[in-house]
Amino acid sequence: MEKCNFKTYLKNFPSKDGYFGQYGGAYLPDELKPAFKEIYHAYLTICKSASFINELRRIRKEFQGRPTPVYHCERLSRKFGNVQIYLKREDLNHTGAHKLNHCMGEGLLAKYLGKKRLIAETGAGQHGVALATAAAFFGLECEIHMGEVDIAKQAPNVARMKVLGAKIIPVSHGAKTLKEAVDSAFQSYLENYHDSIYCIGSAVGPHPFPMMVRDFQMIVGIEAKEQFAEMTGELPDIVTACVGGGSNSIGMFVPFLDDPVTIVGIEPLGKGKELGQHAASITYGSEGEMHGFNSIMLKDKEGNPGEVYSIASGLDYPSIGPEHAFLHDIGRIQYDTVSDEEALEAFFLLSRLEGIIPALESSHAVAYAIREAREVNATGSILVNLSGRGDKDLDYVIEKYGLDYLNKISK
Ligand SMILES: *Cc1c(COP(=O)(O)O)cnc(C)c1O
Fold first, then answer.
1. Is the entire prediction scored with pTM above 0.85?
2. What are the chain's domains?
3. What is the whole-number distance in angstroms between the Cα of residue 125 and the centre of ligand 1?
């Protein structure tokens, strides 16, 4: 890996059939195979087309507000000593998080393919909102499958999707949450793939989605590397990001793979190490297949996807993108965990010291930077991908924990 050149890496990973080492692939029912092949071939053609690239560039600049800045947290850094903490501000991307980066790419692909509808599932509603935004921009229909339990829990995001013109399909079987919503969205895609495209919410799922989402998210790391060099004349010592399915992190990390930089992905430890208390898939999981791809996942005693939990609903996924599993195995990326409590402390410290309220997901990566900065005699710089803003989490945090608790833990 040390000698592996970044351009060669992208050429070789994934392989033609979608593998990163032993991970990835496309485990699909026969009826869906042609649909995913169509997406793959269209993407291969389009990602080299000047008109596609120019259009995406224009959208990123004029609609999304890119490039998002890199920001030096001087007060936060000073509080702990000599480590300099920097943020890549994806919270300032339109809609307040990184997810729009791949949704706009997927929407543009649908447009080029002549499809009229975007189909997806959503859990907490963040992916649904980003996709509904893309659909409105491109003048496409949008169908979002969502468990009834999640619909009840996520009223503001459901309202956002409706205002943006999306059609919500409530899913009322099983546990009525994300897993059932995935099944329902796949079923609808099976029936409608002639005029629709399925849009995944992270760097997961069957080939070519982990590759496409990575490619669309790589703008984050490409911009950040250039901006950081402009500010400091150097590379950061550590680059870090939170890992749910792995999209904001893989986009941040891949452009640094060929550099002498320590890369650390942060998984949610939730309330503890027992199955059901966390969603640290790579830390505690093992190889397995779910949702159409092979990777490292958390399993129950029967070998089915294990129960997961995190204070950050965007991180509670029992598997991880196949590229992460590969980069973990070859030792290029390290993975570490951050608990609910540490994430809450970071949420509050960043708000108080810098005037930036981070998403609870992103707070996990900030917490890791704080932990490193607290080490005795620590020096150097850490670049954190701040994947989203925390407005969506405010009511929950205040209601569940209260200001007194937050004041106490962030002393
Ligand atoms: C969805 C989400 C995540 C987790 O998804 P990844 O695919 O792992 O990036 C992280 N941060 C925010 C703000 C999110 O909305």
1. yes
2. 26-61+99-210 (3.40.50.1100), 65-96+217-409 (3.40.50.1100)
3. 11
